[in-house]
Amino acid sequence: MNQLPTLIKRLLDQFKNVVAQHKDDLEQTNILKHKINLVHPFPITAKPKSFDLGMQRKMKQEIQDLLKRGIICLSTSPYLASISVIKKKDRTI
Known about the structure:
This protein has helices at about 5-15, 55-70. It is mainly alpha-helical and about 90 residues long.
């Protein structure tokens, strides 16, 4: 956190009650509801990205953890968007 500009540090400190400090701080919320207005009457899909076996295992583990904690849920939507995975400096995703 020492590399963040002072203004960002102040903002994060000011809103520390709503900013997750660790991934285990994340929870599901039902405070807000949103609606996505679709432009096209048909599902839009994107070609899935391919990941090496090690990354696939990490992603599956992370997804299982988020499902178990109720942060995400299974979907049967015909829409498809590829996942973007960012490795942190400590090599976690």
